[in-house]
Structure formats: C-alpha cells, structure tokens
Design a protein that fits this description.
single chain, three-stranded mixed beta sheet, 49% helix, 5 helices, 3 strands, globular
Length: 107
C-alpha cells in the first residue's frame, strides 16, 4: 500500500513539474537525452526490478497509439531511437520529465 501511495505521489509530482516547465516556456532538451527501458515480461524480470508500473508493462491500446504518434511526429526522437537500435513499432509509452529528458518504454 505504501509503495502504491509513493508511486502516485511521485507520478503527480512529475506531472505537475512537466506542466510547470511548459508554463514557464522551457524548451525540451534535444532528443539525445533519451533513456530506453525494455518492458517485455516474457524476457526477464527487469521491468519489475526497475519498478516500471504495471500499466506500462501491459499498456492500453490508447497508450501505445499515443507513443507511436509521438515517435512519428518527432524526427529527432525517431533518429535517436534508431541509433540505439530500437524497433519503432515496439515503443509502448514515452514519459517526458520536466527537464525535457524522456524515458521510452519498449516491449
């Protein structure tokens, strides 16, 4: 229960920080500031060790479509992912931090 509450608080704080950064007119860092997290539960247990939320390990279709649209719209992000040998159709979620860095979740 405490872990779930802590996760909710952290997610809320991250969301508020992103909104605040947008309101302050901050620009995102270049797409080179991208972390890749693999979430395929069939491969190993690494997603659970990294405390990846269950909603990202088993994403909804809407979440996947939103992530795919972001990859298609952002040429620099797409190039950075390809440079890191990420198959673009396996991107299931993208989380953008207040400083503009991104975590891309890949199955």
């Amino acid at each position: 229960m405490n872990k779930a509450f802590a996760l909710v608080v952290l997610m809320s704080a991250a969301t508020m920080g992103t909104a605040y950064a947008r309101d302050m007119g901050m620009t995102a860092k270049p797409a080179g500031d991208v972390a890749i997290v693999y979430t395929d539960p069939e491969i190993d247990n690494s997603a659970k060790r990294l405390d990846v939320p269950e909603s990202i390990i088993h994403p909804s279709q809407a979440m996947v479509q939103k992530a795919q649209a972001e990859v298609k719209a952002d040429r620099a992000l797409r190039a950075d992912l390809l440079k890191q040998n990420v198959e673009l159709n396996n991107v299931v979620a993208i989380d953008t931090a207040a400083d503009g860095s991104r975590t891309v979740y890949v199955r």
